[in-house]
């Protein structure tokens, strides 16, 4: 049974189980509603496993979330859903740190720290720090150039 169907099933009627409904709701919130109950972890992508972990921690009282490439394997519609979830976490007083290359996530961020100037041994220095609009306008880094092309500046 898919998570979205199970969420409905455990949300009302004779099968109503508030604890199960809450857990399944968190899985839907992180964009995993298409997974099947009992699906082996070995069949999940890295991004799916990361979002599963996020769903389990959303019930805790933690104040800081660190996500590494959470959009991996996501359809653009799912990226929008993830951005909405991250907004809700921030609005509830949580701090969210995302390591990401997806331009939609970068454009949506409150603050960007761009490391570079290249990858691997050619990187590791802060080459920009500020809001996404300033990074796109400056085009002073490779990330800034890609972000500017994405936002159309």
In short:
The chain is built from seven helices and four strands; from the N terminus they run αααβαβαββαα. The protein is an alpha+beta fold and 153 residues long.
Report the biggest beta sheet as strand number plus sense, adding barrel if it closes.
2 strands, parallel
CATH architecture of one domain: 3-Layer(aba) Sandwich
**Count of beta strands:** 4
Shape type = elongated
Proportion in helices? 40-55%
Helix segment tally: 7
Rg over CA atoms: 18 Å
Class of one domain, according to the CATH hierarchy?
Alpha Beta
Q: What's the helix-strand series?
A: HHHEHEHEEHH
Kindly state the mean pLDDT as a whole number? 91
Beta-strand residue percentage: 5-15%
The H-level CATH homologous superfamily of one domain, spelled out, is P-loop containing nucleotide triphosphate hydrolases
Enter the CATH topology name of one domain: Rossmann fold
Q: Give the class from helix and strand content and strand pairing.
A: alpha+beta
Uncertain residue segments: none
Q: What is the strand arrangement across the widest sheet? A: 1-2
Q: Note the gap between the termini.
A: 45 Å
């Amino acid at each position: 049974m898919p998570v979205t169907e199970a969420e409905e099933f455990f949300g009302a009627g004779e099968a109503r189980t508030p604890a199960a409904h809450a857990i399944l709701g968190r899985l839907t919130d992180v964009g995993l509603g298409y997974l099947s109950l009992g699906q082996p972890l070995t069949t999940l992508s890295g991004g799916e496993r990361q979002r599963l972990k996020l769903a389990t921690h959303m019930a805790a009282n933690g104040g800081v979330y660190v996500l590494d490439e959470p959009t991996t394997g996501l359809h653009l519609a799912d990226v929008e859903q993830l951005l909405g979830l991250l907004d809700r976490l921030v609005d509830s007083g949580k701090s969210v740190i995302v390591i990401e290359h997806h331009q939609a996530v970068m454009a949506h961020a409150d603050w960007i720290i761009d490391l570079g100037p290249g990858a691997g041994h050619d990187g590791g220095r802060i080459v920009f720090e500020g809001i996404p609009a300033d990074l796109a306008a400056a085009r002073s880094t490779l990330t800034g150039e890609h972000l500017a092309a994405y936002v159309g500046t």
